[in-house]
Amino acid sequence: MRHIAALLLLAVSLSPVAFSAVTPDDGNKLLDSCKDYPRASQLTAEVDRVKVMYCVGYVGGFTDGLIVSKGLMKDKSGPPNVCAPEQGVQHGQAVLVVLKWLNEHPNLLHQDAPLLITLALEEGFPCK
Question: Nearest 5°: CA angle at 19, between 121 and 117?
Fold first, then answer.
């Protein structure tokens, strides 16, 4: 019976409704999801920890996809103009770059999250 209750709790916690509060579709939600990343080890509220984990997964996955797609492009000089260092980009590093950029550009937070992540990474990891 405990296993069934645990599985039910897990299923509910992973439902789209549970993640709808943290899904960053614009810069405001992305900033809200990522703002606590620098102090993630000190967070006690489950909602805050879920937001930070989602932020790292979202920004990290987006960054990986962007870098891989850039590597597969025939014309590497075209957009997006993101060039990762040889050792790659750690997900935490990408989050810090995006978080810094979002805080420096509050006038753009209404824009789509993928666009803002791309702009932040272009500035943080420009092609030379």
Answer: 10
Structure tokens at 59: 């920004």
CA-to-CA separations, 59 to 77, 81, 83, 117, 125, in angstroms, rounded: 23, 17, 16, 7, 14
Contact 34, 23 (CB under 8 A): no
Token pair for 1: 């019976």
SS3 for 84? Answer: coil
Query: What domains can be seen in the chain, in order of their start residue?
Result: 24-124 (1.10.890)
Q: From first to last of the 128 residues of the chain, give the pLDDT tens digit.
A: 444 443 333 344 444 444 444 556 899 999 999 999 998 888 788 878 888 999 999 999 989 988 888 777 766 666 678 888 888 889 999 999 999 999 999 999 999 999 999 999 999 998 87
Q: Is the link from the previous residue into 80 a cis peptide, with omega within 30 of 0? A: yes
Specify whether the CB–CB gap between 95 and 37 falls below 8 A: yes
> How many whole angstroms separate alpha carbon 18 and alpha carbon 47?
9
pTM over 0.90: no
